[in-house]
């Protein structure tokens, strides 16, 4: 049995409100970051202060600030593709209604974004370590624009690999076995984390594009969001995946020339 229309309308309204809030906060955060003085680096580029600890700020505080920014940004980027998965989950446990259904939905979504939070916890120290190396080794700093172009190129090539195809298949099918599990809070949390893990892996190359271009770059964010949505939900998903790969390869070559 599918959830009542009123419940479904409330679900979509809440999803739209959450997306609007997270997108607004992301845009405001990007604007505030762009207003800060970036650090000029050898090679003619500027390092974002996102990877630099502010005066009187502890590394724990810097990591917490990054994680909050990361979670808000991921909510804005991933909600468009997550909402259809949550709707399928709600239909699969449709015999459950009322507050219990809403609680289970929230737990699936929370588990999903917890997986992305763990990903962010891994990204931050790697970003800080790379930024520190770039500040100490001018040769590495001068090579960053070329390395970024090469990374975008490789991310595009990855779209054509069997690895990418496997990860996308797992991501698309992550919720197919929900009908065989009980509608319990612990199970809902695990379902969300499982879906989040598959999504993190299938998005790894696209996320890398955003990280090397600029984690708070709105253009990169928009491209990655549309790409993720297209390769999961477009009727011709495989064709969309290849088209995204071509665009990334062209962009990588352009940055290398």
Any overview of this molecule?
The chain has 257 residues and is an all-alpha fold. The protein has one domain. It is built from nine helices and two strands. A two-stranded antiparallel sheet has the order 1-2. β1 and β2 form a beta hairpin. α2 packs parallel to α8 and α5 packs antiparallel against α6. The radius of gyration is 20 Å and the shape is globular.
Structural topology:
Elements: H1 5-34, E1 39-41, E2 45-47, H2 59-92, H3 98-136, H4 138-158, H5 162-173, H6 185-202, H7 204-213, H8 218-233, H9 237-256
Antiparallel strand pairs: 1-2
Helix pairs in contact: 1-2, 2-3, 2-8, 3-4, 3-6, 4-7, 4-9, 5-6, 7-8, 8-9
Cα radius of gyration in angstroms: 20 Å
Span of the ends, CA to CA: 57 Å
Series of H and E elements: HEEHHHHHHHH
Roughly what fraction of the amino acids lie in strands? Answer: under 5%
Number of helices: 9
Number of strands: 2
Described by strand count, sense and barrel closure, the largest sheet is:
2 strands, antiparallel
Q: Which blocks of ≥5 consecutive residues have pLDDT under 50?
A: none
Number of structural domains: 1
Helicity level: over 70%
Q: Which assembly state applies to the chains in this document?
A: single chain
Structural class: mainly alpha
Looking across the biggest beta sheet, what order are the strands in?
Answer: 1-2
**What is the mean pLDDT?**
86
Shape field: globular
